Prior knowledge:
By secondary structure, this protein is mainly β. The chain is 1% helix and 54% strand.
Amino acid sequence: MNILLIFTFFIISGAVRCIDVIGYSGGSVLVDSHKLWHSDVKQYLYIWNNYKWNILIKNKDSRKWIKERRFTLFCTENGHLMIFIRDLNTQDSGKYLIGVDDKWSTKIILKVKDDSCCGASLRVMVNTGQTANFTCQYSQDYKSDDKIILKKGNEMIETFISSTNVKTKKERLNTYDDTQNNLFSVRITDVRLEDAGVYLCGVYLNKTSYSYSILTAVHLHIMMSPVFGDEGGSAQIICPYDPIYTSTSQKLLKSCTDKNTLMEMNRWIVNDDMTASVFSVNITGLTAEDAGKYCCAVTLETDVIYLYTHLIIIIKQELLLNKSEGDNMSMECKHHAEYQKVFCKAHEVSMCVNDGVSLQSIRDDGFSLSDETSTGVFTVNISHLREEHSGIYWCGSHIITKVHLNVTRE
């Protein structure tokens, strides 16, 4: 009797390199294969599980950015294949295999650690023209390693700052590595709109592998000028964006404190002018509930990158007060703990809010403030009114009341 035996072999062509990679729970890792992408051949990522290699990613249409859940393969500027794994947890520890069919393959041994130093996510808000500062903590094991800042873009992750590579230095950016306290600090001066985005702060582990351990993700928001709207009226929010966020990137406007997208509201008119790279939203029928911070963002597949933050300030109906000289009076002003109190005398509200004018700007001993934080109200008291106190006042925070005070002599 002749018996035909058929065997199926899983064949990995070429010599297989093996590199060790270290990551931290909550953080990410980047591994540069230092091997060519080969656009005409399929790229892959496997994970070793249950005594066999299981497919995580298999490129089917020659794209140069392939993402499956937390795993991404992409082609770098120099044509290398790179893997990015984000939101790490200890269960991600294990063996991985990246490569190109019939060309090459590299085995990765990933070890994910728990450490209070690493895996944080920061949100930094700064006005245009000001200075942004953020600090990334690292393990004492990396005192002598190259610290690096990368920035996420549309289907790209670029090296932004390297602590030892002079070629990566950029204007307006300065770094300081405090090896005594294991802190790597970044300073961006004269902040501009294009500085907004997600920065990845990590260490380059080139002693053992071509890998980066991302320790902190920093979301840099640029605060735009306040947007004012009368109660019952309308307001427009304008969000410029970098042309790298192509038409494949959805533009969003979200409440900065609400995870739900607000674009679908029937009072919102949305326009995306891709020629001018500007996304805008017109809001009609403004109510007090519309006041607050809104975040302009773009989506990169399932990721959301926050770029700019606008503060919508609602101007309530004008309050008319007629008083006589020598009288005392009080004004109640709405307040929210997240926003700065505003009380000032000016013809336009923008003269008060842009400079954060407070009671101290009114140099008069007759003015005093009482704050009832729990009630969301602060009260301005004015004693011994004089004729020169007449004028237009603005009081509140994200909801501001226009007060027209008229003081007359008896």
